[in-house]
Write a structure and sequence with these properties.
Length: 300
């Protein structure tokens, strides 16, 4: 039995997991930009049956990364992309992995467009506003679906930019940069707006007050707890599966791709799950049995 067949064997039979959808996953090339907390979605993606990957990250593994990444202390100092490449190929030697030990700056749009030319889905996993803006702009220009899920949120907060409704990261974040060349943008001025774009209702309760305030004003680094990161990773991975199925024209049974302006949120502290519309600022409460969503003002 091929390793790919072994990996997908036990999930076959779940709704939306069948030979046709597994073939769609294997045929879909993914890009993960940022191989830290959000990048840990790679572990779930390869185990779900994806085999074609592009990974971009400038950092090397640090001991503090091990609370959420499936690596080992002796790998500290190794570029994260190399750790991931080894991990993916160990799990499935048939994987195709293009690993780039580099960041994404305002000068990298041209390189990124070429690198993503054969990619269908991008997972955005950096905390750098400049990198996120560049990746978002390139994905929109190429019509590549982009899955987002801020791993530092302390909850599962996930959605997809499908780029078929004229909504981009820059528009949703109200950066006011859509008509500006990348060389003209002062990325320091959009940092607070970038943070606000992912500050869903209730997020501030996930941190001690002084940490929350520091994260908001940029004086405190983002938090990343493996417990919460894995929640986000799981939701992101399933959205990746759903997007791949939809991109291949196959039906989705009992579910749908959650697309911007709608974001799905699960708070593990209270057990509450809800939707949030980042444009209207409305809260949606889903019905477990019917799947319908009742919308109201935030705070209701």
């Amino acid at each position: 039995m091929r390793m790919w067949e072994a990996l997908i064997n036990r999930q076959d039979g779940f709704v939306n997991f069948n030979p046709q959808t597994h073939a769609a996953l294997a045929a879909t090339r993914l890009a993960v930009i940022g191989a830290g907390g959000n990048g840990t979605v790679l572990d779930l993606l390869v185990r779900a049956g994806f085999v074609k990957f592009v990974i971009v990250d400038p950092d090397s593994l640090e001991p503090t990364n091990l609370n959420r990444m499936p690596f080992y202390p002796e790998q500290a100092g190794t570029p994260k992309v190399e750790c991931w490449k080894k991990h993916l190929l160990t799990l499935n030697p048939e994987c195709e992995v293009r690993a780039h030990h580099r960041g994404v700056t305002r000068h990298d749009a041209g390189w990124l467009e070429k690198e993503l030319a054969d990619v269908r889905i991008v997972f955005l996993g950096t905390t750098d506003p400049a990198a996120n803006l560049v990746v978002g702009r390139v994905a929109a220009r190429l019509g590549i679906r982009m899955i987002v899920g801020p791993a530092s949120s302390g909850s599962a907060v996930v959605s997809t930019f499908t780029h078929d409704n004229d909504l981009t990261l820059e528009k949703v974040g109200r950066f006011e940069t859509e008509n500006m060349a990348l060389e003209e943008i002062d990325f320091r001025t959009i940092s607070s707006r970038h943070f606000s774009a992912v500050a869903f209702p209730g997020r501030g309760r996930n941190y001690r007050p002084e940490v929350w305030e520091g994260m908001r004003d940029g004086t405190h680094p983002a938090r990343s707890c493996g417990i919460f990161v894995r929640l986000a990773n799981a939701v992101m991975a399933f959205e990746g599966v759903k997007n791949a199925i939809a991109l291949h024209g196959l039906p989705l049974e009992g579910t749908r791709v959650v697309a911007i302006p709608e974001v799905q949120i699960f708070d593990p502290r209270t057990g509450c799950a809800y939707r949030y519309n980042v444009v209207t600022k409305k809260i949606g409460i889903p019905n477990w049995l019917t799947g319908s969503v009742t919308w109201g003002d935030a705070g209701v």
